[in-house]
Specification:
Largest sheet: 6 strands, mixed
Mean pLDDT: 91
Radius of gyration: 22 Å
Number of strands: 10
Order of helices and strands: HEHEHEHEHHEEHHHEHHHEEE
Number of helices: 12
Strand order of the largest sheet: 3-2-1-4-6-5
Helix content: 40-55%
Low-confidence stretches: none
Structural class: alpha/beta
Length: about 325
């Protein structure tokens, strides 16, 4: 008799990703794959599947848990997660403590600190990849948050199955729902921890999870989560194509000195032109996470609605101004 359908589903998802990692990292020594584990159902299900599948493919499997220090006893919680990961047979296993700042709000600051810690751990251990337990439900929430920000098709494309430097981060569960992961933990008697922040209405994602999505399903019927996840993939395909077009077009709109020519920018479709402007702003030092659609629209008006207006101030002390038919974007 085979494993429970939920366990089979998570193992299959992980096996596929591990095969991809082996194809991407052809080395003589066994590659190391880490799982980022909070102790919640999604990441515990992921850890158990990694521990089961990795040895069969000659892959070393380890785990990292990040202690954000946002709740009393978080260090004890992290130590407990490490113990569970070792019991699954993962090695190396470590807990890393971070200090969460305030930039961009509490959720964004915690995310930035977490990814910085995971990057450091991956580099220190020479890991080929880090697995993340984001599910289809998380993807649906991310799409809705992007829609609420009004920040364009890239925001609607949600989380990529592969992201980070060199494709470091892999998300095997983006096509599986949260309930499947929880069921897999239950039938394997894996203890899970429910983060109280996930039910705290002061967090935007928590309100969306417990109020917004249920309201949408009540109004529109079941299938909203699946439809949003499908929207993410379609949006990602479109966004990737437009990004490629913008990269190719950028060389054609710069003069011999490398400055952007307004007339040539004006001739491009808006979606392509704004991508070029965004890239130029980021290259000049504007932080990508603080650069919103409204900023790029203001810069775009220097090209499409030129009336002699002054310079546009962007995040990171970057300034965009029009000078003699050229668009100059640099730190002020």
């Amino acid at each position: 008799m085979g494993p429970h359908p939920a366990v089979a589903a998570i193992r299959l998802a992980v096996r596929r990703v591990l095969h991809d990692i082996l194809n991407d990292h052809s080395t003589t020594s066994p590659p190391l794959v880490l799982v980022a584990c909070s102790g919640g159902a999604d990441s515990m299900a992921l850890a158990s599947a990694l521990a089961f599948e990795a040895p069969k493919l000659g892959i070393r499997a380890g785990g990292v848990t990040v202690d954000h220090g946002l709740q009393p006893g978080s260090d004890l919680r992290a130590a407990e997660v490490c113990l569970r990961l070792r019991e699954l047979g993962l090695d190396p296993v470590e807990s890393t403590a971070v200090t969460v700042g305030r930039a961009g709000g509490p959720e964004a600051a915690a995310r930035d600190a977490r990814y910085a810690a995971l990057d450091t751990a991956a580099e220190r251990h020479g890991a080929a990849a880090v697995l993340l337990g984001h599910t289809r439900d998380d993807q649906a929430e991310t799409v809705l948050l992007g829609l609420a920000r009004g920040s364009g098709i890239r925001s609607l494309s949600g989380m990529a199955a592969v992201s980070g430097a060199g494709g470091r981060y892999r998300r095997p569960f983006l096509e599986l729902d949260r309930q499947t992961a929880r069921k897999a933990c239950m039938v394997q008697s894996l203890p899970v921890w429910d983060d109280p922040h996930n039910a705290d209405p002061s967090y935007t994602r928590s309100r969306l999870r417990h109020e917004g999505l249920p309201a949408l399903e009540k109004a529109l019927g079941k299938g909203v989560v699946e439809a949003l996840a499908r929207t993410a993939q379609l949006s990602r395909d479109d966004a990737d194509a437009l990004d490629a077009w913008a990269r190719q077009a950028e060389a054609t709109v710069r003069d011999a000195a490398g400055l952007l020519e307004c007339a040539r920018l004006y001739a491009l479709p808006p979606a392509v032109r704004r991508r070029i402007l965004r890239r130029a702003a980021i290259e000049a030092g504007a932080p990508a996470g603080s650069l919103f659609a409204r900023h790029i629209e203001e810069v775009d008006r220097l090209i499409t609605g030129w009336r002699g207006q002054g310079a546009i101030n962007l995040p990171g002390k970057v300034v965009a101004r029009r000078q003699g038919g050229r668009l100059v974007i640099r730190q002020g």
